[in-house]
Design a protein that fits this description.
Number of strands: 24
CATH topology of the largest domain: Nucleotidyltransferase, domain 5
CATH class of the largest domain: Alpha Beta
Helix content: 25-40%
Structural class: alpha+beta
Oligomer: single chain
CATH superfamily of the largest domain: ATPase, nucleotide binding domain
Number of domains: 2
Radius of gyration: 22 Å
Mean pLDDT: 95
Distance between the termini: 56 Å
Length: about 500
């Protein structure tokens, strides 16, 4: 008996099978490309993502046939939805959160509700990266797709639907649409009425960890899964990451390092939610009951992938060494002489900043490739320093970070973060915590794991702690002061560019 976790990211999908003792039995990964059909547009080919997802499921199912999979769950990046028909046909590409389309609708939304009134219903800071403005853009510019779509499903629930389940939306993902009422734990009648989005097109809201059906026999046969595998509603990837890092009670903060890098503090429902609003923080359901999370994120992993594709295209690392490990070795030990503004895509958390771009300052003819890579990682980490201070101001203390995701495999990357933040960074043995968390969620929902504490004891183990270096932390303190000046100084130029 084993559990299957599936994790969809912006640039690739993974699947992992875990035994009931927490051992990883098989993993698989496939990449896909972000499409930019026009300036400011960012999409995924939904058919390609579904095809790659089926490929990773089939690969791990074949490798774990001796320990049959009994249940699965799915985590995925937020906001992006896919229009589908009742007969499970994909109708269009998926518009990503970094896409510029629909921003005019956020202006209308804010003018109607005001920020505080809106936050009282859906505790997010309205911005064009959420699902609602993209839905409104689709209705205006592709009315035929909007009309033919029976459902608009976010990716974790879309995969469950395509596997044979009913159309639902888990509550952590529903929150990313801007159409969700956090207190009611359901779609907001008021926001649906304003947007004129039919409730029937969004699917029933369920909490993460709800059994929503089973894989159809036809899909089971195609993917080499046993028949009767139960499907459990998953959640937003960072919520599943948090569970897979052992964050089963309030007080821990996760640093998920994938295509996006995200700080995810876990807490009880705040008595004064407007305190989070003032700090630019959202509130969202965790995948465990009575717990909530906030997100502070940037495009860290996408920047590293851009660096790989731009500065190391055609590079062949030594045998048994992946390209990222090879490039990590080129990083200097000391803080770099460069300063990077990681606005390669418009920042959207904790504050949306339109009309900006990335900056690499301080380049010389003596600058090496490894120094540029390290400066990119430094810039992405410096982005979070002010938000960690904001969390402390509202009583969410961060004494350490637990790192997850593909980026957590980089020793140098984790040491950079420890040195910049001035707190320890802990790496679990299994860094693909999204996979692990969804497998744990599948086990909890189907009763093979009795409690979250039992699941964490079995599945979550820590590998190494990276302690901050006091001297480097002092240097980074000076560098952060320069970082704070960089965007305000260059903003008029970046706006014109």
């Amino acid at each position: 008996m084993s559990l299957l976790g599936i994790d969809l990211g912006t640039t690739g999908c993974k699947a992992g099978v875990f035994g009931l003792d927490g051992a990883c039995l098989a993993t698989a990964y496939r990449e896909y490309d972000m499409l930019h059909p026009q300036p400011g547009w960012s999409e995924l080919d939904s058919e390609v993502v579904w095809r790659q997802t089926k490929a990773v499921i089939a690969e791990v199912a074949a490798q774990s046939a001796r320990d049959p999979i009994t249940a699965l769950s799915i985590s995925a990046f937020g906001e992006a939805f896919v229009p589908v028909s009742k007969d499970r046909k994909i109708l269009d590409h998926s518009i990503l959160c970094v896409d510029d389309r629909g921003r005019e609708h956020i202006t209308r939304l804010t003018a109607t509700f005001g920020v505080e009134r809106f936050y009282a219903i859906n505790p997010n800071l309205p911005g064009p990266h959420y699902s609602l403005p993209k839905l409104l853009w689709l209705r205006a510019h592709r009315p035929d797709v909007f009309r033919r779509a029976d459902y608009f499903l976010l990716w974790s629930d879309l995969i469950a639907f395509l596997l044979g389940c009913e159309p639902v939306t888990n509550n952590s993902h529903a929150n990313r649409t801007l159409l969700f009422d956090l207190n009611k734990n359901d779609w907001s009648d008021e926001l649906l009425a304003w947007s004129e989005i039919p409730r029937a097109k969004l699917g029933r809201v369920v909490p993460g960890g709800t059994v929503i059906g089973q894989v159809s026999d036809a899909m089971a046969d195609e993917l080499q899964l046993p028949r009767g595998v139960r499907v459990v509603a998953g959640g937003h990837d960072q919520c599943c990451n948090a569970l897979g890092c052992g964050s089963i009670t309030a007080g821990k903060t996760i640093c998920g390092i994938g295509s996006f890098e995200c700080l995810t503090p876990v807490f009880r429902k705040p008595a004064q939610p407007l305190a989070l609003l003032k700090e630019g923080l959202n509130i969202e359901h965790h995948v465990l009951p009575e717990l909530y999370v906030a997100f502070i994120f940037n495009q860290s992993g996408l920047l590293v992938k851009w660096f790989r594709d731009t500065f190391a295209a055609g590079c062949i690392p030594p045998a048994n060494t992946d390209i990222y490990t090879f490039l990590d070795r080129e990083m200097p030990d000391d803080p770099t002489r460069l300063l990077v503004l990681p606005h390669f895509e418009s920042p959207i958390s904790p504050h949306y900043i339109p009309d900006t771009s990335g900056v690499i300052a301080g380049l010389k003819t003596s600058t090496k490739r490894g120094e540029i890579l390290k400066a990119i990682v430094e810039g992405a980490a410096l982005y979070f320093v002010d938000s960690l201070a904001a969390l402390a101001r509202i009583g969410i203390s961060t004494q350490e970070l637990i790192a997850s995701g593909g980026g957590a495999q980089s020793d140098r990357g984790l040491q950079i973060r420890a040195d910049i933040f001035g707190i320890p960074v802990i790496r679990p043995r299994i860094t693909e915590a999204g996979l692990l968390g969804t497998a744990m969620l599948a086990g909890l929902a189907t009763g093979v794991l009795q409690t979250a504490r039992e699941a964490a004891q079995l599945f979550v183990h820590y590998d190494r702690m990276f302690e901050p270096d006091a001297a480097r932390h002092a240097v980074y303190g000076e560098k952060h002061a320069l970082y704070q000046q960089l965007f305000p100084t260059l903003q008029p130029v970046l706006n014109k560019l």
